[in-house]
Amino acid sequence: VAGLHGLSVEPAGDLETRAAEIRAEMAAAGVDRSCLLLGDYGLRLGEGDRTIEEENRLATDLAEADPEHFVAFCGVDPRRPRAVEVFRAALEAGARGLKLHPGSGYSPADPVCRPLYALAGERGVPVAVHTGPIAGPLVSTYASPLHLDEPAADFPDVAFVLLHAGQRAWFDLALDMARWKPNLYLELSLSQSLLIEDEARFVDRIARIKAGIGLDRVVFGSDCPGVSAVMALHTWVDAFRELPTTAAKYGSEVTDEEVQRMLGGTAATLLGLR
């Protein structure tokens, strides 16, 4: 199982404490590795106490120290003058992907992003992009999956992971785009609330993905630690493990092999892991 986690550190001295908490949560859920996804919000919300280079170094240092549990992604706003250098340095330090968060106020289709995509393609690493509405003062304007259409077309060798699969607002759009762009992958974190509210609708979402693009282009994610308050990681993982039985209740079919692909097999391929 490979999960997607966020890493929040307050202050830097608490890094190992926070890492230990994540490891414990992973162990309880049977998650082997977590991806550390850094959101660069500085140009929208104001800069923090550390530079973006220092923030990324926290993640790559942790992944280097404990590669059996953690995988680092580089998070950088492409409008930063040294964005490509930040990404390149993170890759040299062991990062295995790029994280973009258009909630900071830019479109993933903006030409300023293209050098980052070119570098991702050169290094063979995926690009994970937030999609779906988001609370202010971040903005939802550019978080529609539609903004990934041009990048996916122009960089066909780059795997783009649509984080949250557009959420409820744009799930249909995300799935329809993925039908036409084989380098688009859907990640389903933030669907925990849908499962809680209506199990049948959650199963229908899985069934529609299977019919549209196949479940081998689904990447499991948790969006923990924030979403842990909505659903514990182990409960979310178990929901996927139980999909063959749950889906059958509603007249759908999900195989054990498809579950294994969603719960890490596809992610391991994209990340070049064992």
If you had to describe this structure to a student in words, what would you say it looks like?
There is one protein chain. By secondary structure, the protein is an alpha/beta fold. Helix content is 46%, strand content 11%. The chain is built from 12 helices and 9 strands. It has helices at 15-29, 42-45, 52-65, 83-92, 114-123, 149-154, 167-180, 192-197, 199-212, 233-241, 243-249, 256-271, and strands at 2-5, 33-36, 70-72, 74-75, 98-100, 127-130, 160-163, 184-187, 218-219. It has a 6-stranded parallel β-sheet with strand order 4-5-6-7-8-9. α1 (15-29) links the parallel β1 (2-5) and β2 (33-36). Residues 1-12 have low confidence and may be disordered.
User: What is the topology, as strand order, of the major beta sheet?
Assistant: 4-5-6-7-8-9
The description of the largest β-sheet is: 6 strands, parallel
- Percent range for helical residues? 40-55%
- The end-to-end span amounts to 12 Å
- Overall residue-averaged pLDDT value: 94
Number of H/I helices:
12
Rg on CA atoms, Å:
17 Å
Could you spell the SSE succession in H and E letters? Answer: EHEHHEEHEHEHEHEHHEHHH
Counting helices, strands and paired strands, the structural category is alpha/beta
| Shape type | globular
The residue ranges in which pLDDT falls below 50 over 5 or more consecutive positions are 1-12
